[in-house]
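Reopening this one. Same input as before:
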Amino acid sequence: MCKDRNHFLFSFVQGRMFFLCLCLLIPTIFASYDNRSDLQKLFKVKKNYEETKENDEKNIVWRDWEQLEKAGKWHKNLIKDWYNRAHKQDDAIANLLQTMIMFDKNGKPHMPNGIHPSEKESAKAESEDKHVYPKADKKRNFAEKVQLWEYGYIPYSINPQFNSTQTKIVQLGMNEFTLKTCIRFVQKDYAAWSYLPHNTYLYFTYGKSCSSYVGRIRSSPQNIELNPTSCFTKRTIVHEIMHALGQVHEQQRKDRDNYITMQWNNIADGRQNQNMEKLAIGSKDRTHYDPSSVLQYGLWAFSTNRGKTMSFHDRKLESLVGSSTGLTHLDVKEITLAYNCAAGCTNKPYCRNGGFVGNGCRCVCPDGLTGSECQDVESDSDCGGVATLGRVGYTDLKSPNFPNRYPVDKKCTAIITAPEGTKIKLEVVESRLNLKKDLQRNACLHWLEVRYVSPEIIGPKFCTPFSPIETEGNTLMIRFDSRFSKDYYPDSNQMFHLRASTGGATAPTGQTGVPPPPPTSFDKICSFDTSESCWMSMSGLHIVQYASRWGMTPSYGARSTPGYAYINSQTSFSIQTPANALDGEYCLSFGFYMQGTTVSIGLHYSGYGSVWHRSNPPGNFWSIVSISLRANQGTVLTIYGQLESSGVIAVDEVRIRSNSCT
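Same output, byte for byte:
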């Protein structure tokens, strides 16, 4: 937790862009596949090194430029050297630079000099895309569900005419899935065919375009065709494999109009362009729209006049399109959900801040977050942190060593959470955002990344003042980096001072968000029996005030009261105390009712983790739990629960009062 609330978080101590594919199976709906009983048998067969290496999560790198920060790969003038070379748009440095938002003298945003996403290799591949519908599989193209690969197990073969470089690129693409998901590839000659209900295998071969079927087809081989002049990049291979797994493009989601506007007058064939149309039968849309996904088309895709073919409602997010060369966090989450990668896990952890349970039965956290529940930040020890805001409140974020110049070789992460339904506004205080820049190229050398959509989705990077930003949800994540260009030292006046606020809160002159002291006596309860709202923030719960009238189970509350809060579908919930509401000795008590085969409920104590947990239903009755605890300013208590089967979890009479339980 932060020890100095005044200096919270960062100062504790002081053309075209992408390609589509051969979408032979138009539906985007992932079928669920739960039967993994023969999975271990399948994995007993001989496999090459790509399949046999363990899924070492510590080796996962979500963005290619982050590799360059690692020991042995970093060197001086990383950004300057890119400008002194051929300005390759597919280079890791280019992917980093394009996520930076710079401003001209009139305040108009633009990318750093020399960055042209429409010139990426993926844009060239996009222009060669074709759709073909073989008669043999035409009926299959319009099936209600795409066919997934049983067990997430995919036999494959690579055209022996591929040269060594082309083969390596294909293997790098497959390795993205092996490392980050439960998908496994095995050479077809070693496949355990007797355990599979099909004889289909992926065949990577030459073609006139970059193309793939969507989902597993009935016939074999199932070709992924690659034009040798434009398709052999890791990004292209990953994109085509994602289609083969059953995924389709972001811009074809049924909810795409909430995020982007299609510029039909600029698009080849206009509304008849089947690469840009919404899919007729819809899409699952289980995860948030991800502008950085490999499945997001470029903003100039299929343009007839060099104009944009799609625009984001939030133009800041356009800097993220095309910046990923591999699977993003949400790409992996979607595959994990579709292929039930965590189906065999017992006592699954409760994952926060966009984390999810992966095939290792642990939380897969967005990069920058860590901990068994993704509750902590990956940050240098003297900066960064975790905090919560109430519905009206604020806190300041300052650079390390503020108000003096910040040090180099720092990487700081901060995450701030507000009550459910509350947005957080981030603004620059007195224009104090002045980080090291390359003035000649108009690029950031040190930067702040602002994730305001969700911790799961990378954010744009800034090194100069920006207009106030409001979060889409109730979470704000900020990352400061002076490590990538640690060979460039800031000037004496370079620092930052930001303010995160909720409910229109502002700091008086000379103050920086010091919260009022908590009351000396405390006794609050959420009974759910009246229309009065609970003083704690709630997420995922339904409230019924007269359960017996509606034939609900249970038919009454924890103390024979008429109402309670509950979930009765496969989802999760949380009840959380506001920040700075508690300071002293307290007794927390609440009633809970659980019914179902895979249910759990627990209590999370910020700074300590889970302090109480129950995963076995006690029976067809209410149970009461009382827990004595010590809280400091900033302590947040969270009652959480998860229901993964049919059943119900109900909570009632949540009470916190001063003094320990007797």
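So the earlier flakiness isn't reproducible anymore. For the record, Confidence is low (pLDDT under 50) at residues 1-41, 43-56, 130-144, 512-519.
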